[in-house]
Amino acid sequence: MNEFNDRAREWDNNPIHINRSVAIAAELKKILPLGQSLKALEYGAGTGLLSFQLKDIFEEVVLMDNSQEMIKVCEEKKEYYKTKHFRPLWFDLEHSDFNEKFDVIYCQMVLHHVVNIELILNKFSSMLNPGGILAIADLYPEDGSFHGSEVKVHHGFDPELLSATLLQKGFSKAEHSNCFTINRADGLNYPVFLLTSEK
User: Fold this and answer.
1) What is the arrangement of strands in the sheet containing 60-65, beginning at the earlier edge strand?
2) What is the number of domains present in the chain?
3) Does residue 1 lie within any of the structural domains?
4) What whole-number distance in Å separates Cα of residue 51 and Cα of residue 41?
5) Is residue 2 situated within a structural domain?
6) Separate counts of helices (H) and strands (E) for the chain
């Protein structure tokens, strides 16, 4: 079973998840072209915490996740907030193709869970309209303590190397900055970068 299915109902109770989404949304609002009719995809949307912070700036949002329980929570929140322009979607992009085009694709704390980074970046590129924006928020390189040795994930990313990879894939520019720091109760701190790149 998807590990996030078990955590879906409690996900929004964690203040770190909320504060991180608020911080990333604030930075995205500085970057995204407001006042336009934009179609967006949040990849690995979870319960949609980030998208619901951005609900007033997009004409249409697809909230995609491979956890069915997370998508169920998204559906409930869509009804509660009356966001008819939101489309929660249970879908595994790593193993299936998705043939829609978007003006903006964004994700937070998702890329380090993706097995094949090259594959997913190629898919993002093919799914973006010309001039579209890709925004990735994730961990800087860390020692593996964020998830622990029992969880098989990437231990963060060097945003400079990630930027170079995107430029090789046809993106015209890439910029990044520190956007949030996860301060855990165990005293460990994990900075998060926000990288934006234009197709």
Assistant:
1) 86-90, 60-65, 39-43, 102-108, 128-139, 189-198, 173-183
2) 1
3) no
4) 9
5) no
6) 5, 7
